[in-house]
Amino acid sequence: MDKFVVRGGNPLLGTIKVSGAKNSALPCMAAAILTEDEVILENIPQVHDIETERKLLTSMGAEVELGYGRAQHRTHIKCAILSDPVAKYEIVKTMRASSLVLGPLIARTGIARVAMPGGCAIGGRPIDLHISGLEAMGATITQDHGYLEARADRLKGAHIVFDKITVTGTEDLLMAATLAEGETLFENCAREPEVTDLAALLIAMGAKIEGAGTATIRVQGVTRLHGARHRINPDRIEAGTFLVAGAITGGDLNVDCCEPKHLGALISKLEQCGVKIDVGADHVRVRSGGELKAADMTTEEYPGFPTDMQAQYMALATQAEGTSSITENIFENRFMHVQELIRMGANITISGRTATIRGKTPLQSAAVMCSDLRASASLVLAALVADGETILDRVYHLDRGYEHFEEKLRGVGAQIRRMGDVFGKK
User: Fold this and answer.
1) What is the domain-level CATH number for residue 251?
2) Pairing with 385, which of 52, 216, 236, 241 sits 20 to 30 Å away (CA)?
3) What is the reported pTM?
4) Which parts of the chain have pLDDT scores under 50?
């Protein structure tokens, strides 16, 4: 099991490039199920969750070719024959995106058998909104032995109001509605850029969609979708992680190949903390503005502050003068990194969904454990400013969603290296 070894003290200087968004790529790969034709996706990140999705689609009978390097992170997917429309537990147990194939499978084949989703242990990821939406569209759904089985001759348009804003629920039902008979009207939809990215691909495939990126989406179903070529959005969470890395180390870091308009809430919060920000067309430069200042933060659905940046922001807050309050409104168990930060010297207390961070506290090296994807990133950020050499265990969590993370950081001056376990295994 790989570990990271990080020696703190170096400001990050230079330019770092952002990869494609995993959370856009996964639903876009699932959308290829909706057509017999080839779908070509560009800017696909080289992370473990993408490989898991490839295995999932291949197990159903799809042809999937992942190309990197000269192929510009391009993926070719052709679902001409879906001989086995089952999302098997042994494939999807490490990620939550299994639910994203439920809608397209039943829309295309009339049947889907999908293992209940897994992924990081950061709180409940209820699939009930997927189920109720598909049932409203005419599907019959049963559950047994950890699997959901859905059947429908052809889905029918419906008026669906989400009880709670859900990104994967919006994406899953949006895909299903593209091939449903008649019109589907969704209200209280997720507005995340990943939803808009998926809708752009579906429209390129021939879907009739209006309102993606707003709370109300209207879909007129069609009988067939065709192939398309689509470029995945830059990863806003990776970009945000690097912006915080530049800020926490007091560096001068240019985060390139990103989409600044997707980073508005984070940029605003960093400026409140005293960080100097320069925004370009496809890059954001972060520079030290002197001592960091405490600023309260609350996670919200987009365009609010993203829950996927909460842990990284908390690492920054440990180095800010004053007291910061962080309230987590999206997931109920997303403070798993707190005890590890405390082991490194942070002064953090938790009351319900709110963490109070008193800074500035000097951080010290320690052996720490990564518990989920974004917690892993926060511990790396803390290690970049800690005194001494920090060892981070279970970095496979980080490999699920960050492409060549340690290599990118080394390129801008971080002292970080990957180390295999004691037996030398990878």
Assistant:
1) 3.65.10.10
2) 236
3) 0.94
4) 119-124, 422-426
